[in-house]
Specification:
The chain is of the alpha+beta class and 157 residues long. The chain has helices spanning 39-52, 120-131, 143-148; strands at 3-7, 13-17, 56-61, 66-70, 78-82, 91-95, 106-111, 135-139.
């Protein structure tokens, strides 16, 4: 059974076996690798791999930061503006359509360092993507992309 992330009372994600209602787990167990990878390094490598992957139509980094934008009505002259919704994955994309289909599946990849934890909102978003036929997972290493999106549609071929 795959490892999934749930939150404890302290709002830190911990790892334990869990089945979701849609029976679509959020892949992304922590690896026992000795190399410590930073999240930014994982994002760059995963994005480069997705852009070269033969089954991926497109993939882009989705920035979800908060910015201070000018606002004349504000007392300070600025107001905070979120660039994406809470829980949005780091990389969004679309798979190429399978044979006989007209549209490819939605792709959402949440990148984490080898020791990083996903938030409740991030987990909920990936669960939603998987529940409705998309591919959503947590990548802690570039190899995770090939684990969840094999190069061939049918690995037996």
């Amino acid at each position: 059974m795959a490892q999934h992330f749930t939150t404890s009372g302290r709002r830190r994600a911990t790892q334990r076996p869990l089945q979701f209602a849609a029976d679509t787990p959020v892949p992304g167990q922590k690896h026992g690798r000795g190399d410590r990878l930073l999240e930014a390094d994982v994002q760059r490598a995963v994005l480069a791999l997705l852009r070269q992957h033969p089954r991926v139509a497109w993939a882009h980094r989705f920035n979800s930061r908060m910015l201070d934008v000018p606002d004349r009505k504000s007392k300070t002259g600025f107001r905070p503006m979120r660039m994406a919704f809470k829980g949005c994955a780091d990389i969004l994309g679309q798979m190429k359509p399978r044979t006989g289909e007209t549209a490819g599946a939605f792709l959402a990849v949440e990148c984490k360092s080898t020791t990083g934890d996903a938030t409740d909102d991030q987990i909920a978003f990936l669960q939603l993507v998987n529940k409705f036929g998309g591919i959503g997972f947590i990548a802690r290493h570039p190899d995770d992309v090939l684990r969840y999106i094999p190069l061939k549609e049918n690995p037996d071929e």
